[in-house]
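Changelog-linked ticket: zinc ion example.
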Amino acid sequence: MKAEIKCRFCGSENISKWGRRKTQNRGLIQTYKCNDCSKRFTQDDGFLKMKNSPQKITLCLDLFFNGVSTRKIQSHLKQFYPHNSSWVSVYNWVVKYSKMIGKYADTLKVSTSKQIQVDEMEFKTKGKTSWFIDIIDPETRFMVSSGFFEGRGKEEIREVLLNAKSKDKEISYITTDGFMVYRNVIKKTFSSYSKKAIHKVVNASQGEGFNQRIERMHNSIRERTKTFRGFGSLNGAKAIMKGYEIYYNFIRKHQGINKTPIEMVSDIRLKDNKWLELIELSSSQK
Ligand SMILES: [Zn+2]
């Protein structure tokens, strides 16, 4: 996928090439001149004004979401890159690019199995409780939507449901646990359907349970997020969990299907450095 080049200042497509500029971290970069507003610019590939190379930054993202702590990444960088980067930079890259790719990922239309499961996971950090609410299509393993919140009320659940609905309008079968809030919110969110969505409640005390796949997935999220202790602010935590959704959907091949979940629900195919490609796609869409 290649983006059309537009003027960064006025959006015009009436532009000319204007020589190439040498940069410290990104090599030779094509400069353009806008024929409408006369300004010169380079294209933002997602790394404009970053002091480190895309290679190094995406390597850190990949290590982080594979469960390596920011401190350990720092000591790795010390050994392999002459210019050290502190764990704070790594944390900031994780937050910045998770947000950027997250925005892009939320605009995608996908084709799920139409049957989704909504679940919540409790997080306790520094004595405070937070909630990760996620929606999974158990058939394709695609995480249709997720959100990290301080509570799990109507608004939080509705936000996650609406996001799922915007990606696949034909979702028609929703499974949840017995948590009371779901009943009305699901009715409200999906009531505009000509064909009404079916809400199934599973009751754990009667021996019913969620699909084992969901349980396994939650266990693996728990395992991975252990190293995310440096969650920092709520804002940072939200971004990191969004990053985890991206990692889960786009980066990690699922053992059971030998594919990434995004390949099961769309025709998106990413190549070698998937983080890099996702960042380029996200920034070309702005
Ligand atoms: Zn212009």
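Closing comment: Example verified and attached. The pocket of zinc ion is lined by residues 7, 9-10, 12, 34, 36-37, 39 (CB under 6 Å). The CA atoms of residues 75 and 211 lie 40 Å apart.
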